[in-house]
């Protein structure tokens, strides 16, 4: 009998509880170890970049400086992948047009392709002419300033990612360069006209992106969603919308992403866009007709028709981002490499292939290891997206860059994309309130309680305020951080 006492129900319950605790402990340990694994892989990549720089430079006098700069550049590239790329993939993932895994793979492939195939064109000596190179005095002062700018911008983007705020990596680099330049040569060294244009883009980029995204969503609602025969309306208008998106991206990539392969002015790029738009429109007519066959006449059915265009737009946005923003981010590293190897820091900087490889691989690793957090933020946590709303965000991103190029305005792809998400959300709030007022007039003397009005908001105000605040302080925060790092570097090196 004593041998069977272990089968007592109370013992079994205790065993179940112990096993439950063990299972919970295993899950907790697994969750806790994931960030450590990511940081470990990131550290290995940073070390790899440093070793690559050491092998390429061999035993040159400034090898140690280039090795440290390569490590900083790799760290910056990881942070771009963790933060910036979310803006391209977030809407498609939030709309359930693709899984998180598929988004990461597509983004990694197209970001790398954009960086290596279409990126690496000549950039100005210091991040878009923010600082006059001649004001830096010596090459050692210039190198210290670029090192400070690179590290400060990477630290700021890392902090923004940690708090869940998508920020512009280009603006971070600009702020870092400005802060280090001021610390090295005073306020007179800064091109304040260029800085004013960049400050204006803080307002212009998200407003333009939001207005265009809201306008496209209004068009879709008025011409497809609110029609009695939604499927017939979709057969008429979806090919047109997909054609417009294809044309916009053709112009976008011609103007911004393919400068290294072919040089085309804005007028030529728009003509190419029109030709591509017409071709894709004609191609999509039979495709949409086939896809819409047997679909029910309701809004949910329409989502099927926007899935593939949305995936294609996310891929193209990633390609264009890789072609442009990677060069901006690794520009300071390329400037350090040139100044260290030739001593010249006043001429335009050509980005070496190995520096672009560090940028491309760093973005892919950063996206894979740390990107899902910001992808969920942009795709799910600002406002609820479906394929039609996400399509509006993607189309607004391409059109806004073309309009900005035509107007000669510097804009941020991050601000445009997130502004598009906000635009869609705020338009839905306005449209919902308008339709409710039209459906039933309020009874005299009665009003909707404040709690109910807050509940009906379709954009999370807390995220809105966090993101806008992060945008506003990006340049000054990166500048202050960079100035401090520069003074430390100069104090160490004498």
From TrEMBL:
Main location: membrane
Pfam hit, one: PHO4
Keyword Transport: yes
Protein's membrane topology: Multi-pass membrane protein
Subcellular location: Membrane
Key words, A-Z: Membrane, Phosphate transport, Transmembrane, Transmembrane helix, Transport
Alphabetized GO MF terms: phosphate transmembrane transporter activity
InterPro entries in UniProt: Phos_transporter
Residue ranges crossing the lipid bilayer per the database entry: 36-57, 63-81, 93-119, 139-161, 173-193, 199-225, 237-255, 261-283, 304-323, 351-370, 390-407, 413-430, 464-489
Gene Ontology biological process terms in this record: phosphate ion transmembrane transport
Name this protein carries in UniProt: Phosphate transporter
Organism classification: Bacteria, Pseudomonadati, Pseudomonadota, Alphaproteobacteria, Rhodobacterales
């Amino acid at each position: 009998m004593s041998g069977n006492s272990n089968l007592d129900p109370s013992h079994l319950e205790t065993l179940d509880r112990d096993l439950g605790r063990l299972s919970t402990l295993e899950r907790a340990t697994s969750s806790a170890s994931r960030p450590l694994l990511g940081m470990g892989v990131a550290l290995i990549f940073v070390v790899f970049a440093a070793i690559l720089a050491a092998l390429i430079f061999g035993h040159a006098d400034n090898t140690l400086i280039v090795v440290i700069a390569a490590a900083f550049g790799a760290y910056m590239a990881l942070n771009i992948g963790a933060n910036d790329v979310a803006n391209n993939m977030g809407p498609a993932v939030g709309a359930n047009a693709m899984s998180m895994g598929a988004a990461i793979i597509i983004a990694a492939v197209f970001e790398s392709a954009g960086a290596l195939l279409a990126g690496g064109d000549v950039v100005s000596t210091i991040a878009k002419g923010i600082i006059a190179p001649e004001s830096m005095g010596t090459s050692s002062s210039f190198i210290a300033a670029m090192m400070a700018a690179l590290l400060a911008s990477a630290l700021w983007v890392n902090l923004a990612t940690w708090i869940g705020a998508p920020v512009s990596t280009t603006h971070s680099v600009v702020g870092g360069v400005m802060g280090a330049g001021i610390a090295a040569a005073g306020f007179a060294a800064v091109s304040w006209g260029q800085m004013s244009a960049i400050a204006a883009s803080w307002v212009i980029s998200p407003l333009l992106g939001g207005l265009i995204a809201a306008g496209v969503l209004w068009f879709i609602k008025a011409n497809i969603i609110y029609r009695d025969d939604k499927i017939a309306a979709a057969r008429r208008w979806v090919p047109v919308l997909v054609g417009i998106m294809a044309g916009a991206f053709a112009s976008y990539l011609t103007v911004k992403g393919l400068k290294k392969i072919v040089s085309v002015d804005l007028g030529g790029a728009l003509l190419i866009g029109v030709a591509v738009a017409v071709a894709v429109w004609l191609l999509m007519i039979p495709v949409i007709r086939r896809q819409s066959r047997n679909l029910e006449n309701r809004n949910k059915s329409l989502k099927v028709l926007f899935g593939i265009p949305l995936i294609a737009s996310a891929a193209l946005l990633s390609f264009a981002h890789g072609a442009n923003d990677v060069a901006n981010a690794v520009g300071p590293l390329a400037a350090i490499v040139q100044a260290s190897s030739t001593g010249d820091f006043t001429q335009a900087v050509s980005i070496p292939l190995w520096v672009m490889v560090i940028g491309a691989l760093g973005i892919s690793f950063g996206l894979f290891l740390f990107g899902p957090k910001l992808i969920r933020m942009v795709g799910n946590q600002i406002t609820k997206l479906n394929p039609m709303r996400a399509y509006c965000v993607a189309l607004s991103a391409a059109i806004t860059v073309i309009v900005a190029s035509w107007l000669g305005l510097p804009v941020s792809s991050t601000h445009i994309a997130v502004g598009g998400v906000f635009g869609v959300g705020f338009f839905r709030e306005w449209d919902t309130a308008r339709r409710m007022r039209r459906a039933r007039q309020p009874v005299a003397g009665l009003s909707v309680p404040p709690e109910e009005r807050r509940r009906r908001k379709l954009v999370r105000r807390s995220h809105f305020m966090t993101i806008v605040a992060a945008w506003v302080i990006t340049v000054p925060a990166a500048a202050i951080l960079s100035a401090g790092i520069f003074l430390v570097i100069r104090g160490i090196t004498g």
